[in-house]
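Dear colleague,

Following up on Tuesday's group meeting, I ran the structure prediction for the two-component complex that the binding team flagged. I've pasted the input sequences exactly as they went in, so you can double-check that nothing got truncated or mislabelled along the way. The C-alpha cells for the whole assembly follow below. Feel free to forward this to whoever is handling the docking comparison.

Inputs:
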Amino acid sequence: MKFEHELKVIRKGVEEIIPEEELIKKLEKSEKTGKPLRIKYGIDPTGYDVHIGHLVPIRKMREFQDLGHTGVIIIGDFTAQIGDPTGRDESRPPLNAEMVKSNSEKYMEQLFTVLDASKTEVRLQSEWFGKMGMMDVLKLMGKFTLAQFMAHDTFRNRYEQGLPLGMHEIMYPILQGYDSVAIESDVELGATEQKFNILCGRDMQRIYGMEQQIAVLSPILLGTDGIQKMGKSMNNYIAVFDTPNDKFGKVMSIPDALILNYFNYATKLDPDEIEKIKKELATGINPMIYKKMLAREIVKLYHGEEAGMEAQSAFEKVFSNKELPDDIPEITMTDDKIKMIRLLVDNQLCASNSEAKRMIMQNAVTVDGEKWSDVEGDLQITDGLVIKVGKRKYLQIKKDQG
RNA sequence: GGAGAGGUUCCCGAGCGGCCAAAGGGAACAGACUGUAAAUCUGUCGUCAGACGACUUCGGAGGUUCGAAUCCCCCCCUCUCCA
C-alpha cells in the first residue's frame, strides 16, 4: 500500500485519527502537488512552563515535519483569556500584549527543542480575531447550537454538577475551530481531550467551504503521581526547564506501573524495543532497572546522551549510595556561629521557623552527616560544612576569614 | 425580579456560640524500611515563641456577646427552581 511508511510513522503512539481515510487522501494530494500539509497545534500563552505531556503532540508534529510537512503553532492570545474549559484552570488573569509576547517566546524556545524551526510557522490568534467586530462574532456563534455544546462531556458535566459555566467558555471551541479556517490546516494535533475542539475546527472548515482537517489525537500523559493527567496545577509534571537531575528524579518517582506508558509516549524509543522491555518487566525483574533507563532516555531527549548518563550517576550517588551530590549550593559566611533555624530559613532550606524546628525534630537535618537535634542551638561555622535537610536539600558553607 | 442552597485552612470536605488553628480524606513534607524521589508503615502539616503561651485565619465590611467559622445587618460571588 502506498504511504505505508508515512502512516506507520503517524500512527505510532497515536490514540485516534479522525478520519484516517481522509488523511491518506491528503497525503496523496500533497505528494502530487508537492505542497506540504499544514499541521496545526495551539497553545495558550497563559504561562510558559512546558512539560513533557505537552510535548507528546509536539513530537508528533516533528515527525510530520520530518516527512516534509509544515508545523503551524497557534499562539492563543484570545483563547487564553477564556481558559480551556477542558483544562479547568481557575485563575485567568487578563494577559497584556507583553505577557503574551514573553510567554510565547519562552514557550517556543522549549518547543524548538523538539521542532524543526525551518518548517515551523508561529501565528497569533489576534492576526485574525483582532480584526473582527461584533457582527463577525455573532455570525460565528450562529454556526453552532447550544445542544451541540451541551452534548460535550466537559460542558454537560459541569452543568449537571451545578458548577459555574461562563457564557464565554463555549466560545473556546469556536475560536479554536476558526483558527483552523484562518490558517487552512490539514491536520490538527492534540491530546484526546481536545477531540471536541478539534472536531469543531473540522465543522468550521466545512461551513467555510474548505477542505476539512484531520484530527490526530495523542493519548494523555499521566503525571508522576500516576493518577491524574500531567498538569501544572497538579504539581505532577516534568518540565522542559527542569534540570537533568530533577527530570531523572521525577521519572524515578513515577509508580512502577507507569514505566511502559512513559516509554511509549515520552521517549523516542522504537516500539519493538519497548515490546522487549515489556516482556522483561513481566518476568518479575526489578523495575528500577528499566525505570532508570527510562529516566535516562527522557533526560537524553532534552539534554543529550551525556547528560542522561550524568543524571543517572548523580542519582545513584545521592540516593543509592547516599553520597553528596556534586553541585551543592554554597553560601559564604563571616560569622563564627549562627542559629541553626535561621540558617535554614534564610537559605530557603525551610519555609518558616516552625518548619525548620519540625525538620530538626523529625531528624531531617544533618551537619556533615551527623544528625542535628538541638532545635535552638547555634551552629559553629567552619569552612566546608555541609548541611542537609530531608532527602534533597543541601547547603555548603564557605567560611570567609576576611 | 421571586423562592431556596451555599462560599471553611494547598485541594475536597465536616463543623453551625466556648472543649476550634478548626474532624476526615487527598496532596505535600519528614522518618523508618527498601529495589527507586516506587510500594508500605509511622509522623508532621497557619505564624511567632525555649513543646507553656501569643497572634492571624473560616467570601468582604460592620454589629450582638465575657466569647463568633458558628447569631444579626449590609455587600460581593456561585448554584438550583420559578418567571
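Chain A is about 45% helix and 15% strand.

Cheers,
M.
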